[in-house]
Write a structure and sequence with these properties.
Helix content: 40-55%
Strand content: 5-15%
Number of strands: 17
Low-confidence stretches: none
Radius of gyration: 24 Å
Largest sheet: 9 strands, mixed
Bound molecules: nicotinamide-adenine-dinucleotide
Shape: globular
Amino acid sequence: MTLEEFQNEIMEGIPSELPTKSEYDLNLNHAPKRKEILSNDEKKLALKNALRYFPVELHVVLAPEFAEEMKQFGRIYMLRYKPKHKMYARNIEEYPGKSLQAKAIMLMIQNNLDHAVAQHPDELITYGGNGAVFQNWAQYRLCMQYLSEMTDEQTLTIYSGHPMGLYPSHKDAPRVIVTNGMVIPNYSKPDDWEKFNALGVSQYGQMTAGSYMYIGPQGIVHGTTITLLNGGRKISKEGEGLAGKLFVTAGLGGMSGAQPKAANIAGCVSVTAEVNPKATYTRHSQGWVDEVITDLDELCTRVHKAKENKEIVSIAYQGNIVDVWEKFDEENIYIDLGSDQTSLHNPWAGGYYPVGISLEQANEMMANEPELFKEKIQETLRRHADAVNKHTAKGTYFFDYGNAFLLEASRAGADIMAEDGINFRYPSYVQDIMGPMCFDYGFGPFRWVCATGKTEDLETTDRIACEVLEELMNNSPKEIQQQMADNIRWIKGAQENKLVVGSQARILYADAEGRVKIAAAFNEAIKDGTIGPVVLGRDHHDVSGTDSPYRETSNIYDGSSFTADMAIQNVIGDSFRGATWVSIHNGGGVGWGEVINGGFGMLLDGSDDADRRLRSMLFWDVNNGISRRSWARNDEAVFAIKRAMETEPLLKVTLPNYADDDLINSIY
Ligand SMILES: NC(=O)c1ccc[n+]([C@@H]2O[C@H](COP(=O)([O-])OP(=O)(O)OC[C@H]3O[C@@H](n4cnc5c(N)ncnc54)[C@H](O)[C@@H]3O)[C@@H](O)[C@H]2O)c1
């Protein structure tokens, strides 16, 4: 397809003529059939909803076709409208349109749907089993058309994938406002999602799927590397490191696929179980995991050898994780670090597979006998927890890696509660590691994408970011030097570790000062022509973006961890301080109804406006969360916000007074 044909297809939006239907591609990884949730009347409503996008004369053809999709997939994806152009992040200059900011958003959307990046590209799912960019292909086409025609005096609103329209605004306003899965709180159970999504009125945007900020597994490789390094520090004697130590986990999917690579970077032996051969062999062929083993005895022999020789090696076990935990217990293989990254935010619809049943049988059961499937899942979770408990009794350090493992295991009645019956017996990685060591100081997953698609630009930005961090480290207090050092080590090894899948993107953890200084240095380099435009962003999984009581805000102990003011304040604040787009979601990371999470994207184009916006917005974007963490009496955050106030005279944050425990205890 020529550039002109590509641009024409984007600008055409939903074609007035019926497009030809393409073959259903069996080589793609497709989403499982969603469970039957709609009544007959509701199916009629879903059909009417879908047909809203198309001229009436096409309805006789489309109505039965969409009804068939509903029957076959449990959703209407409008596959006939899948565009003919290839999905990938093109050079920003190749996108048609009047607004460079809008072009940046198109690039990011296409990256999220790139076949090398997205988990279920035909179903517009980027990661996490159900993390959607759009609900159907009509929404994609319409959104891209709006972006290609909008100016910097307009804002596009996206309601759970549906582009509601373009509205007059102004050049400092976001070009796009995304909301995903925002529902009335009493209607926020997983089955509500199934129903609203099947009706075509809501979607689950995960964190960076529906916010167009996914950068492939690199984002999570970095987070996992930092977590493993810090986890390793918790279990190791001073200076011992992770050599010869064993890390056991599960999942080689969208995000979880990063675990073996992170384990290699952190320098240990790792075993990652994965039930879906497509996921296993994709990661293996991409070089994200070194070896694949399908037999448990062979796995044990290999692990013994790797531990003995202190090899740095990542092994995929093709099968169920429960079998690994149980077998290693029988064989007395000592596990140093353990975790899990199956998609337990989505336990009933393919996020977690039962042990002892083939993948095909499980998928059939999920669609046809959902109650039995649920029983099998809960049985598996109880076995899973029992096996983990046996290992932790021998000394394994196990942490929940933010996939709702402990939450769902507890709901399944697994032996996973602490003695107080309130807390879990294992910490979440945020409680022990990320919260106090990173988020409370403002360190979080800052990222950027070089919008020219040039590797040279990425190399230059890596160098700039490294120089900024090195200079900051020289003048930073000791409390944050370890974080700086880990990230300098990361950025220095980033190119060698070949982390790019899809767009030319990079991630590192930086605090407010680091993010502002790196972004300002990029903008200068764009201004003087050293590099092309850069898109800034971050994961929602950050200091301020996410209110999630079992994850990002699990180290908030003042009772406010079930409130979501911080995430809402964050996107509102970002939107009037210069974000190019903002997004607010229900459920990202741990599941629908469990969390509210938000984020932003910002285009740097080398202009003075971009410089003004980045300083204002990034400062708020981090310090909002530090303020709340400080108000919750987290010492590290009190330290960080006081430091921020010293540097910015216009910042004035309410600080907590600490009540004396003896006084409180004398009263109650
Ligand atoms: N802590 C974090 O920073 C963080 C970041 C990203 C994702 N997550 C969470 O991690 C989870 C995984 O995310 P993802 O994007 O990789 O999802 P995914 O659905 O792409 O991958 C999960 C994989 O687990 C496999 N699996 C399911 N049950 C299994 C079992 N019993 N044994 C072995 N393999 C099994 C699935 O086949 C799938 O490939 C999600 O819940 C997500 O929210 C946490």
